[in-house]
Each structure stands twice: as C-alpha cells, then as structure tokens.
Amino acid sequence: MKATIVCILSGTAVALTLFLSAACDNAKPTEQGGLSAAEARAIAKEAFIYGFPMAANYQTMYKQAIDTANHDYRAPFNTLTSSKSVATPDDKFVVTPNSDTPYSYLWMDLRAEPLVVSMPKIEPNRYYTGQMVDLYIFNFA
C-alpha cells in the first residue's frame, strides 16, 4: 500500500514538473511580478531534485524493513541482518549492487531512542566499511 503511494507521489512529481514546464512555455510574467517560464521550470526542477532521493530511498526502506512479503525484505527496523550470498544480476534491490561483496543491512528507527552500532575487530588484512545515510542519502556518519 505505502509503496503504491510512493509510486503515485513520484509519478505526480514527474507529471507536475512536466506540466509546469509545458504550461510555462506560453506563460508571461504578470505585471505584479509573477514567475517567468524559466523561473517556474527552475523551481519545478529543484523541487523534483530535492524530493526524489527521499522518495526513492523510502521505496527501498519499505521493501527491506516494512513489507515482510516482499522478495527484498531483510529485517525489521533496528535489526542488523546480513545477506546469505553476494548479489547477482537478478538482484534489483538497489541500483548496481557490488557483485562480490556481502552486504549487511540495518534500517534504524531513532524516534524513541538512539542506537549504539559497533563494528567488530577484524583481521589486519581484511577491509570493511560502514555507511550511515538519512533518507536524503546524506552521509552523516
């Protein structure tokens, strides 16, 4: 249900952007200082760019942490889980996943309280990373 809503909102944003762009081709600034076609297009473009990452990341979050019936479901919020295998070309859960890297997932819900995330000690010749991003895909840690 929520995935459908996100798709509708994303489609609406695209349609609104196209509508504003097309409608503004014939629009002229009003005497009161209304928007020009170029200004309206720029505003629509900025709104789409601002909202797209959150909508796309919400779709991924919904598939991986909320919709238990989804093929891409990983675990509920605040539960760390790891893939049992590496990604293949059939995996579409994110764009171009690294095909030789095992992934772990943790969707954090920090509304009630903070979480402590610790990384285990590993061998000196091994390498791993941890990335933390918000729904706008801003790397905050």
Describe this protein's structure:
The protein contains 2 helices and 2 strands, in the order ααββ. The chain has one domain. The longest helix has 30 residues. The two termini are about 30 Å apart. The model has no long low-confidence stretch (mean pLDDT about 80). Helix 1 runs antiparallel to helix 2. The relative contact order is 0.11. It is mainly alpha-helical.
Task: List the keywords.
141 residues; mainly alpha; elongated
What would you call the structural class? mainly alpha
How large a portion of the residues is in β-strands, by DSSP E? Answer: under 5%
Count of DSSP strands: 2
Number of helices: 2
Summed over residues and divided by their number, the pLDDT gives a mean of: 80
Total domain modules: 1
User: What's the arrangement of strands in the largest beta sheet?
Assistant: 1-2
> What's the overall geometry?
elongated
Biggest beta sheet attributes: 2 strands, antiparallel
N→C terminal distance:
31 Å
Radius of gyration: 20 Å
Low-confidence stretches are none
Order of helices and strands: HHEE
Helix content: 25-40%
Provide the fold topology.
Elements: H1 2-23, H2 37-66, E1 81-82, E2 104-105
Antiparallel strand pairs: 1-2
Helix pairs in contact: 1-2
Would you kindly provide a brief summary of this structure?
With 141 residues, the protein is an all-alpha fold. The protein has one domain (2-105).
